[in-house]
Amino acid sequence: MMGELNYFKIENNLHETFFSINFFSTATPPSAVNTLLRTSIMSRYQIEALNPQKYDVYIGFDLAGGSSFWTFFGQVLDLEIESQLDNLPPDVPIEEAEELEEKLVVLWVGSDYRHPIRSIAQLEQLLAPYAQITPDMKQQLLDDQERELHQPKTPLSGFVELFVRSQDSANSIQIDEPS
Question: Which keywords fit this entry according to its UniProt record (predicted)?
Fold first, then answer.
């Protein structure tokens, strides 16, 4: 019996960890839940934007469900659009809300595992018009990468790899195994 899809978020200071789990039955053993939770973790940090009145900027490291696919990522959000979305009346037409949501993300890099961002220098270059990554934050991303790449594979890893490969008809995906 398929259960509901639950999303969890753990926050502390500038670090947020997001993960989701699909409960297949109400009798899912705790060990299975822990294994599944481990497979969908990524780091995400808010950094100071060059224009903090206009943008929110987020960066992080994502290990793609514990698979061989990994990427650094960056996201720039338009604060004016975010404010408009937060203040939409409940009866706004869905099309209008969706149109605003499409405008919210100004830049999103590293969101496609088929074209990953493999270095902080590359991420820094892509985000240069919006933010600078501090040396401490660079080290945090490297620490996240080191910790996550050396975790053992999980049952979901194979599924994620097959799914991502199926999205790339040319099979030109680069996989970097941990050293």
Answer: Plasmid
CA 129-134-136 angle, to 5 degrees, is 155
pLDDT digits (tens, 9 = 90+) for 49-77: 999 999 999 999 988 755 567 889 999 99
Q: In this structure, which long-range contacts are made by residues 53-57, counting pairs with CB atoms below 8 Å and at least 24 apart in sequence? A: 53/79, 54/78, 54/79, 54/80, 55/79, 55/106, 55/130, 55/131, 56/82, 57/127, 57/130, 57/131
| Residue that the structure tokens 């892509």 belong to | 126
Within a domain: residue 56?
yes
Lowest-confidence segment of 20-29, 82-91, 112-121 by average pLDDT? 20-29
Domain residue limits at 119: 44-166
Q: Per the domain annotation, does 95 fall within a domain?
A: yes
Structural contact between residues 21 and 40, judged by C-beta atoms closer than 8 angstroms = yes
94 located within any domain: yes
| Any domain includes 32 | no
pTM of the model: 0.68
What is the count of structural domains for the chain? Answer: 1
